[in-house]
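User: Quick sanity check before I run a bigger batch. Here is a single chain. Can you write out its predicted 3D structure?
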Amino acid sequence: MTQKHTCLIVDDESDIRELLVMTLERMDIDTYSANGLEEAKTLLAQRPYSLCLTDMQMGDGTGLELVQYINEFHAGLPVAVITAHASADNAVAALKAGAFDYLSKPLSLKQLRPVIEFALKLTPQTSHAPSDTLEMIGDSEPMTHVRHMIAKLSRSQAPVYISGESGSGKELAAKLIHKNSARAEGAFIAVNCGAIPENLMESEFFGYKKGAFTGANQDKEGMFQAANGGTLFLDEVADLPLPMQVKLLRAIQEKKVRMVGGTAEEAVDVRIISATHKNLVEMMEAGQFRQDLYYRLNVIQLKMPALRDRPVDIPLLANLLLEKLCKNLGVDAPKIEQSTQDYISNLAFPGNVRELENMLERALAMCDGQTITIDDLMHHEEIRIERRKVPRDEFHKLPSTNPNISPDVKLPEYLEEVEKRAILQALEKTNQNKTAAAKLLGVSFRTLRYRLVKLGLSKEAETALEDELEAEE
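Assistant: Done. Predicted structure follows.
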């Protein structure tokens, strides 16, 4: 027989306690009530609970104190705080202290039920790390900390702000938080805030009613409605214009949205995770980002480390990325030589994991199919010469890009030979299939045809390109 869930209700207002008791009993949850902090501590010592709902202001203490007490002596018990309508600061403080979620007075059953349901999905004392995905692997201290934080954040409903350089895995971290949370069955909606035209932003976020503007032929949900019950990931949140920042802040605080052209607000249950590579503090000081929105989004911050800050992870990550690339191409993965692994571990990688993958994709086109050498990697068009841990006086000891090249050869001729070799190897690997070769080289089909003509490798490509250009004219 399944054991019934139990809830501890802590509030010094009897009518609020009665409302909560009735709601929970209809959900087949046993309830126990306390009218203050000290009585709550006594009841906590008597039995385990599935969740706790507490008011923020009580006669003998605060909900914040209770959250801190539960975190210390009853770790794993989800706590949701009930705050006054205008006390947004209290809600943020409670979430920072470890509260699972918050509810605003006057209490709405539409908002109360999802909070309770999500809390009951959490297993007390769960401390397992989330399942790894490709780019989140690594034994370094920074990545161990990231996985620990993801496991912790997955047990909360608090807004999360993910900072870090481009290509460091911010969206991946957001997906893992969602995947390992009580919202895993809900939708994960990712939106690039910088990719939406300003005049369409409100309707994209909140939806619109039929007839709201020219072309609005039917009601359309926005991203908040699509993410209801799940997670909304706001990537590059720094790109939001100030007017939209105001509307986003209100939606987050009130947990309600109004469609463009609509008159009624509707409750939405959405967890917000945001990210950007920009410095929001500097933007705040410059008046480009609202301070109140910043503190609403940045309840808990997760910083993604740059790839150069975890060099011990690079060889393992490189091998797994290479396996993924080869699997997608349907070819056997070549071996990365040990000297090559040592070499890439000392690169700066300003583009982080994304740059490493791009480098390996190009090296795959350059190599002999059996092994990837330093020479293959050095043809990466965005490779940076700077290396960590390599003193200037040791630089001459590093392998050259091609030991057979004459020192008298001019750079343009050398680069042309490199490009020819890459194209010919790609064509050989794809049995002269130019479309597949272009994909392997990371260029468009048209670009490949152009380079074939320029390098004198294809008369057929030259004729096709001339025909195409004539047609465009």
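The CA atoms of residues 362 and 442 lie 7 Å apart.

User: Great, the batch can go ahead then.
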